[in-house]
């Protein structure tokens, strides 16, 4: 999308609150300070036009020739004029996966490397379609990361809230939350321990209703009403490496830019 390119660039730059500085959740500090209502309108216009990749590439090339300094996003298309699964903004170095319509898929951003956009082994969550599931997991992990940061700061005035040694932030957060939920310290998230999680984290109405309601059953892969650490990691998408990785930049602040890209999914 022509405006998709401009908006992707701006969405990756807009500062926001929340998520930590991490190797796999970078956010650029600074960026446009103007109101984003115009960008939202551009996105809506893009959805309404629903141009093919070929049409939008031609339009982007035309505008880029008139405004080369603007460094617009140029879509990459197949020989048949369809959207390539991997799209990259050449001037920023960011790449992401897209659906057949060209709409970005949450949680797939990479930096200066093409993302992994094949999700054949992604386990189905009943009532929670693939795109909704990915958005739900991105948002849930983002919120859990913020919860962990707040808890550590309040408990011990600890300033280092980054990932544990040799772990990504996502896995660090997943392990921390499981430990908090495992009140009997048996290393397993038992059925009797599910209720507090349902009544707090999964009450967030910003999440898809069916995704949050079916999440714990999805985690309990073997249906024995006990969620092991491996099942917990699996249902959060960590065992399959379902989240692409982005490098650490110590100057980054703010929230995961892929959460902002959810505008483009209509969520």
Automatic annotation (TrEMBL):
Signal peptide: none annotated. Gene3D superfamilies: EF-hand, Thyroglobulin type-1. GO terms for cellular component: basement membrane; extracellular space. GO terms for biological process: extracellular matrix organization. It is found in: Secreted. Pfam families: SPARC_Ca_bdg (PF10591), Thyroglobulin_1 (PF00086). Residues 25-51 are annotated as: Disordered. GO terms for molecular function: calcium ion binding; extracellular matrix binding; heparin binding. Residues 207-242 form the EF-hand domain. This is Thyroglobulin type-1 domain-containing protein. The gene is ORF78304.
């Amino acid at each position: 999308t022509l405006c998709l390119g401009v908006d992707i660039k701006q969405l990756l730059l807009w500062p926001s609150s929340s998520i930590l500085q991490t190797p796999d959740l970078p956010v650029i500090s600074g960026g446009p300070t103007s109101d984003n209502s115009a960008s939202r309108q551009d996105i809506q216009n893009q959805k309404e036009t629903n141009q093919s990749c070929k049409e939008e590439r031609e339009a982007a090339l035309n505008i880029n020739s008139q405004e080369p300094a603007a460094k617009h996003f140029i879509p990459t298309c197949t020989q048949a004029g369809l959207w390539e699964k991997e799209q990259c903004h050449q001037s920023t170095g960011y790449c992401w996966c897209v659906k057949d319509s060209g709409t970005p898929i949450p949680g797939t951003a990479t930096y200066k490397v093409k993302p992994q956009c094949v999700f054949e082994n992604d386990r189905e969550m009943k009532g929670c379609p693939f795109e909704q599931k990915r958005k739900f997991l991105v948002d849930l992990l983002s919120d859990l990361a913020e919860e962990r940061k707040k808890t550590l700061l309040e408990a011990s005035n600890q300033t280092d809230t980054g990932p544990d040694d040799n772990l990504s932030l996502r896995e660090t957060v997943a392990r921390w939350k499981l430990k908090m939920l495992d009140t009997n310290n048996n290393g397993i998230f038992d059925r009797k321990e599910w209720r507090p999680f349902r009544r707090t984290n999964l009450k967030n109405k910003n999440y898809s209703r069916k995704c949050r309601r079916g999440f714990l059953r999805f985690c309990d892969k073997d249906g024995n009403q006990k969620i092991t650490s491996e099942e917990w990691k699996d249902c959060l998408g960590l065992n399959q490496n379902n989240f692409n990785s982005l490098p650490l930049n110590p100057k980054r602040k703010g929230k995961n830019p892929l959460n902002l890209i959810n505008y483009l999914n209509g969520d």
